[in-house]
Design brief:
Blueprint: H1 4-13, H2 16-84
Length: 88
């Protein structure tokens, strides 16, 4: 088994072009992994936003129904009051 010093000496004998290609390859793999990670995070966040949006739509629907009932009740009370108060 070759020792680490002989491996380093063998690598030092090679042209720097191979070092550049190796670093470029490692850099591209790192960038690819980072992009893949962030795309997965965007997918998770998109699902969470959709869930919150759906929940909020349900809340707004309930509040609109409640408000419609309140308006209908107030309109009925106003009509009753108008019947009992004479106009000049």
């Amino acid at each position: 088994m070759p020792d680490p010093i002989s491996i380093a000496n063998e690598a030092a004998k090679h042209d720097d072009r191979w070092l550049f290609i190796a670093l470029l390859t490692i850099g591209l793999i790192a960038v690819w992994m980072i992009v893949k990670y962030f795309m997965a995070q965007i997918g998770v966040l998109s699902q969470r936003i959709d869930a919150i949006h759906t929940e909020y739509q349900g809340y707004l629907r309930d509040q609109n129904d409640r408000l419609s009932k309140i308006i209908a009740e107030n309109t009925a009370v106003l009509r009753l009051v108008e019947k009992h108060i004479p106009r000049p």
